[in-house]
Specification:
Jelly Rolls; 2 domains; about 220 residues; 5 helices; about 30% helix
């Protein structure tokens, strides 16, 4: 299941984020790549020892982890600190699947991936995030401050950047609902429940849908 969140980050915060990224040291992205990804990853990532890392995380992640759509889509149990990626002309990230286990020492399972776009589409050419799923390839290039959420098991790649600079933050979540098909069913059922509640708050249908939703959460969630 793919979901997007528009205007996750305010224009004011985006201006500050751009300043921090421009003023931060970046290293070869291969340093954080797994065995397979290392062969297809051609980008740069902000050094996590940067003095700006904490401020960036507060500006980028604070709205994401609180956003109701993110919660309803990812059901996060643990959300990882993001990687801040920079793509200059000629850089790309070839087709890969995210590593199933990440972290150093305190490891976590990757169930849900999120890319937060930090550059406007007109700032660079190419650089689309392409995700392959049962519906084929989906090419995604969102406005700065917007995010796309997708299953970590999906095959995906970042197309070559041909001009300009592409900044993005990428983070992963271990979900309380491990099965992606169950997460999708809960998301859609919750949408139906909310629509019914707005139109028919006292109806028997609303009460039954709400009860079914809650009981499925009780059955499927792992806390």
């Amino acid at each position: 299941m793919l979901a997007s969140i528009d205007h996750l980050i305010s224009a004011q915060n985006l201006t500050r984020i751009k300043q921090l990224l421009d003023d931060s040291p970046f290293v070869d992205g291969k340093l954080s790549a797994g065995m397979i990804a290392k062969s297809v990853k051609i980008n740069q990532e902000m050094n996590p020892q940067s003095a700006h890392f904490k401020e960036l995380n507060e500006l980028v992640m604070s709205n994401l982890v609180r956003h109701p759509k993110y919660k309803a889509t990812a059901w996060p149990k643990r959300v990882a600190a993001p990687f801040y990626a920079r793509y200059e002309p000629g850089m790309e990230y070839g087709e890969h699947v995210d590593d199933p286990i990440m972290g150093q020492g305190d490891i976590y399972r990757t169930d849900v991936s999120t890319t937060i776009f930090l550059s406007n589409p007109e700032d660079y050419e190419g650089g689309e995030l392409v995700i392959k799923d049962t519906y084929g390839e989906r090419s995604i290039k969102l406005a700065a401050g917007s995010a796309v959420i997708y299953p970590s098991h999906s095959r995906h790649y970042v197309a070559p950047v041909t001009s300009g600079v592409r900044y993005a933050a990428v983070t992963w979540a271990q979900s309380t609902v491990r099965d992606p098909s169950k997460r999708e069913m809960l998301y859609e059922l919750n949408q139906a429940r909310e629509m019914l509640y707005k139109e028919l708050p006292e109806s028997e249908a609303t009460r039954k849908i709400s009860a079914t939703f809650n009981n499925l959460v009780r059955r499927w969630i792992d806390v």
